[in-house]
TrEMBL record, chains A, B:
Residues 1-63 form the HTH asnC-type domain. Keywords: DNA-binding, Transcription, Transcription regulation. It comes from the Bacteria. Pfam families: AsnC_trans_reg (PF01037), HTH_AsnC-type (PF13404). This is Lrp/AsnC family transcriptional regulator. PROSITE patterns: HTH_ASNC_2.
DNA sequence: GCAAACACCGGCAAAATGACGGAAAAAATG
DNA sequence: CATTTTTTCCGTCATTTTGCCGGTGTTTGC
């Protein structure tokens, strides 16, 4: 992973479908050298694949972030709530006003609302802020 | 968005870097027809772009969320800033006060701070809120 | 010093692409 | 219903890109 690999990955992050030749021009290497490097990056697992980025409206379902504030002495005491929701993808404790940031992907807005209400029933939870995801610009995880 | 478009997108989701010819074979259309359809899907915004999927380079480090507010008429105009940062893992447009929620994983707090300052240099960006991840409770993705 | 391994380059044939005109199908018009 | 218009598709040609190869220079280890 030297500066050339970094540059190549930078190019692919701009547009993963551009030609190897075009990348070679941008990074000032021969086409075959770039092709070799990309193949190696794929084989060693640095590059896990290539994704098409769709507008959020085309995806089935709705994603959202919940910011959660609770009154439990420890986060651990409230996390079981989110374990019980299969749509929860990530749940992390964060610095700032709120305590937790929970990312969910629900099949429908109706279900999303249901999840929100379910969370709300828990007395330990003081405050919820919902942020519906309206567009996805970068996703290096493949969700 | 008929069944052909769906099939094409399905192919691209498998591997966004495969050739148009290969997709044409899989969906039983001529190469030029598929190329036209893809171009149209790009122009109408159904396909927003193509991304390379990277493996988490190192488990060590610091993660954080940046809430971003900007003054660009369209989010797309400001997203290139985050494409330029290899540590960015997700970047999504959200409802609420802020416009974007960016998740990053940096090798060190020093580097995280560097990223924050880099983002701050961009005049289009009005406001940044940083939330350092202090604990991870649920992660259904294997980042 | 001398192989071996590595990364790079350039060249060639094969494959993929972009651009075009024209046929067929679908939609809109009278 | 007939006809125009639009859309979608196909095949072809010139160009670009790709995969594959041998050859060269540089680093690595014995």
């Amino acid at each position: 992973m030297d500066k050339f690999d970094t540059a190549i990955i930078h190019c692919l992050r701009q547009d993963a479908r551009q030609s190897v030749s075009s990348i070679a021009e941008q990074v000032n290497l021969s086409r075959s050298a770039v092709a070799e490097r990309i193949k190696k990056l794929e084989q060693t697992g640095v590059i896990r694949g290539y994704q098409v980025l769709l507008s959020e409206s085309q995806k089935e379902g709705v994603s959202a972030y919940f910011e959660i504030q609770h009154k439990c002495p420890r986060c651990a005491d409230v996390v079981h709530v989110f374990h019980a929701i299969p749509e929860v993808i990530t749940c992390r404790g964060i610095s700032g006003d709120m305590d937790l940031l929970v990312y969910v992907h629900a099949p429908s807005m109706r279900r999303l609302h249901e999840i929100r209400e379910y969370i709300d029933t828990h007395t330990d939870i003081i405050k919820i802020k919902t942020h519906v995801v309206m567009s996805e610009w970068i996703n290096n995880l493949g969700e």
